[in-house]
């Protein structure tokens, strides 16, 4: 076990504080990302949260994932939000009245009694399920946890690889900037430019009651988010055979799908099944990722605009995440590392926090405080830490681990931080920050 960072005696206090955040944000069947800003259950948040919760309560970690998967649609999609009916309408926008899943989503098999959004987020869930199982196999076998979640996780992946392969060339596409989980990344600026924003009078944002406007997406961004979601809803949330004003292949989402496919292989093996189809699928996804999104000139992966059939020349930290893949060719992994440690991302820099920013430090749109346009996020850095370890760069992984724990705790488990100074931005007591810090202390 690696030594905890910081002065001796510091880490137990950090772990205690992280546990307190997860306890406060637990609703009884799942965990909110934060009570004020995000008062429902979010998809990829729940996966990261379960990864931390497994060290506190393997049972709660199992329930977290089961609650989310219980809201899965018949077509296999796992919605990005599962709404809590006890939360007042208007507390979050867009809420259940906007998505109208139980009516508009019926053709795609949305649940009748649970209200959800109609879009998705990155599939971190099989990875989380496998890590939760491993934390306490006896507690998992006792409840038949793996057997319970396996069919749902398999259907979820099938939805992404079949219904979302919009280009027909082997990678899933996202149809809304909320889907890759990095809402206002500068990568989406160009593909969004031709989307006509919805009338600002037609909706009311709730996020600005809880977050500083300078830390959040702009009103123009929101107008476009609303337009895309309204159009998707009007089409019954159908994917294939209809035009999408926004269709993008994201290296972050594709990486997480491939990683989760590896986890499904482990799950199949544990259940006495055949891991090979999942390993083959993971290899196929990794190959497609390299073929469609690797940019030798940039030394990193880039997103692809499916409508323009072109790579988007903006550097997001999502383009470093393939480092987490076990079967990424070593020459590419070495290039990605070079880019991560270079001036665009400053991974491990002693002059800054050592965390990677969400977007290129030298990019024209860089903004140290605004959401996914620069700030450092803890989930991305947690994934990179795994990648460094996976490829044998243990010292670097250890330094990143210490930075995540140290900066995460000092920021009050902020949603995101200024990557140079560590100054907290966004909401505090954010669940996945606490969960992933806890995981790295375990
Ligand atoms: C929209 C909950 C979610 C995260 C996303 C993050 C943010 C929502 C919002 O919060 O998005 O889904 O209202 O801005 O971008 O990654 O899952 O924490």
Annotation field: number of helices: 16
Number of domains: 1
Each distinct ligand:
(2R)-2-(alpha-D-glucopyranosyloxy)-3-hydroxypropanoic acid
Compute the CA-based radius of gyration.
Answer: 20 Å
Distance between the termini: 8 Å
* Major sheet description: 3 strands, antiparallel
Helix percent band: 40-55%
What number is the mean pLDDT?
96
Strand order in space, largest sheet: 3-6-7
Number of strands: 10
Keywords: Glycosidase, Hydrolase
Domain Mannosylglycerate hydrolase MGH1-like glycoside hydrolase: 38-433
GO biological process, one term: oligosaccharide metabolic process
Family: Belongs to the glycosyl hydrolase 63 family.
Q: Could you give a short description of this structure?
A:
Helices cover 44% and strands 5% of the residues. The chain has 16 helices and 10 strands.
Report on the structure:
The protein has 442 residues and is mainly alpha-helical. It has a single domain (10-441), classed as Glycosyltransferase, CATH 1.50.10.10. It contains 16 helices and 10 strands. It has helices spanning 10-24, 43-53, 58-70, 96-99, 101-104, 125-135, 137-143, 145-163, 189-192, 219-234, 251-270, 276-293, 330-341, 378-390, 394-410, 431-441, and strands at residues 41-42, 81-82, 248-249, 294-295, 300-301, 304-305, 310-311, 376-377, 416-417, 424-425. Strands 3-6-7 form a 3-stranded antiparallel β-sheet. β6 (304-305) and β7 (310-311) form a beta hairpin. It binds (2R)-2-(alpha-D-glucopyranosyloxy)-3-hydroxypropanoic acid. The site of (2R)-2-(alpha-D-glucopyranosyloxy)-3-hydroxypropanoic acid (9WN) has 10 residues, from α2.
């Amino acid at each position: 076990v690696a030594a905890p960072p910081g002065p001796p005696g510091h880490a137990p206090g950090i772990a205690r504080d992280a546990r307190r955040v997860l306890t406060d944000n637990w609703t009884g069947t799942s965990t909110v990302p934060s009570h004020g800003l995000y008062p429902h259950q979010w998809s990829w948040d729940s996966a990261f949260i379960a990864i931390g919760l497994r060290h506190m309560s393997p049972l709660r970690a199992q329930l977290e994932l089961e609650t989310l998967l219980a809201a899965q649609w018949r077509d296999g999609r796992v919605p990005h939000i599962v709404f809590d009916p006890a939360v007042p309408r208007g507390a979050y926008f867009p809420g259940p009245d906007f998505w109208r899943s139980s009516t508009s989503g019926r053709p795609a098999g949305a649940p009748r009694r649970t209200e959800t959004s109609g879009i998705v987020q990155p599939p971190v869930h099989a990875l989380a399920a496998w890590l939760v199982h491993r934390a306490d196999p006896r507690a998992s076998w006792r409840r038949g946890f793996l057997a319970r979640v396996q069919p749902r996780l398999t259907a979820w992946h099938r939805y992404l690889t079949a219904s979302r392969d919009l280009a027909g060339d082997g990678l899933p596409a996202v149809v809304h900037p909320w889907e890759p989980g990095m809402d206002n990344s500068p990568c989406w600026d160009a593909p969004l430019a031709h989307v006509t924003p919805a009338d600002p009078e037609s909706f009311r944002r709730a996020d600005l009651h809880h977050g500083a406007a300078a830390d959040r997406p702009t009103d123009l961004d929101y107008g476009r988010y609303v337009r895309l979601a309204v159009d998707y809803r009007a089409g019954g949330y159908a994917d294939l055979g209809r035009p999408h004003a926004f269709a993008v292949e994201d290296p972050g989402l594709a990486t997480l799908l491939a990683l989760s496919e590896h986890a499904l292989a482990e799950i199949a093996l544990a259940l006495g099944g055949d891991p090979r189809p999942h390993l083959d699928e993971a290899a196929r996804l990794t190959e497609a990722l390299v073929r469609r999104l690797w940019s030798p000139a940039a030394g990193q992966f880039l997103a692809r605009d499916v409508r323009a059939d072109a790579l988007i020349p903006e550097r997001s930290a999502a383009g470093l995440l393939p480092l987490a893949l076990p079967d990424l060719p070593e020459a590419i992994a070495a290039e990605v590392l070079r880019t991560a440690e270079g001036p665009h991302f400053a991974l491990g820099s002693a002059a800054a926090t050592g965390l990677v920013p969400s977007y290129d430090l030298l990019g024209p749109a860089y903004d140290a405080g605004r959401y996914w346009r620069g700030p450092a996020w803890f989930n991305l850095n947690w994934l990179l830490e795994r990648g460094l370890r996976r490829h044998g760069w243990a010292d670097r992984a250890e330094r990143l681990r210490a930075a995540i724990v140290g900066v995460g705790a000092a920021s009050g488990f902020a949603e995101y931080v200024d990557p140079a100074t560590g100054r907290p931005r966004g909401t505090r007591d954010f669940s996945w920050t606490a969960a992933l810090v806890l995981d790295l202390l375990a």
